[in-house]
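Entry 12.
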Amino acid sequence: MSLSIKQDHRRFKQIVRGKIKKNLRKYISHGEMLGRKGKDTVTIPVPQIDIPRFRFGPKSQGGVGQGEGEVGDVIGHGDAQPGEGQAGKDPGEHVLEVDVTLEDLAKIMGEELELPNIEPKGQKSIESVKVRYSGIHTTGPESLRHFRRTYKEALKRSIASGTYDPNNPLIIPVREDKRYRSWKETRLPESNAVIILMMDVSGSMGDEQKELVRIESFWIDTWLRSQYKGLDTRYIIHDAVAREVDRETFFHTRESGGTMISSAYKLCAEIIDAEYDPQGWNIYPFHFSDGDNWSSEDSRTCTELMRNCLLPWSNLFCYGQVESPYGSGQFLKDLKESFPDDERLIWSEIPDREAIYQSIKTFLGKGK
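Predicted 3D structure (tokens):
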């Protein structure tokens, strides 16, 4: 790639990045790009970028073509049909879909929302082992035999001993010629994290409320993945009872039962206790609900679980209350009353899609 092309490409990426950053609030509020998410990239529609295009001269100038016909024949209009509708004077909107890596998207998100980098806990508690083949040894398993190095050693030996025949260049390696790949293990401290997403799927939570949760969860997951090399995501849904599900079920299930929030908190505590040692894991429970719980007694059970288990174990416990025409919103009031000054609990009210932007900033702006 020539220097000028590299410069143009870099400039184009800067323009795209600027457009994404400028319109990030809109992208966060609307989830249309999430359906086009790949493994490591997401497709985002970027408006108002002029794309290079061919410009044709007047018809009278002629041109070069292929196919049947003689010089001077009139070129017809083909089978094109006239369009429908009235003529307009306004220009069309230019929309370009670009693939953005989730890593770049997280950087843009962090800059625009002014999110601090997270300082993980337990960095020395978990180690990852990386193997690198970086040398050649004279001994080793046959599965790691280096063919080229072995052949070169055999060739050098044949030439040095005078047995090499250019007319019959048969090279047979002996034991001393064989060379093997060797490896070196490197142990690196690594901070692992787990997100435990909990969602109320009772009858008072409609499709719009679940869509708010889906959009916000995507952006939270994107940011936390940029902060940790190892990230687990667990999904819990609950009405009167709680169960762990996969991602697809979490975002698309429909229930119509009552609500007992404590069932989700008990299951969350069980998962942490069984699989995620708080001394070595960075733990982020997120619970989304419309705040309508079955009873004040169950809300007291929730606060006890938070006080005794979930808050001490977690980096942050985040509660997002979505607005529902059928939800009372009482649970958030109970949390505020029980934990008025506890910085480990972060809460956010999410009345509509426009509130997602500020909600994410509220949850992630502490850098914990």
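Annotation: The chain has three domains: 1-51+94-112, 127-187, 191-364. The radius of gyration is 31 Å.
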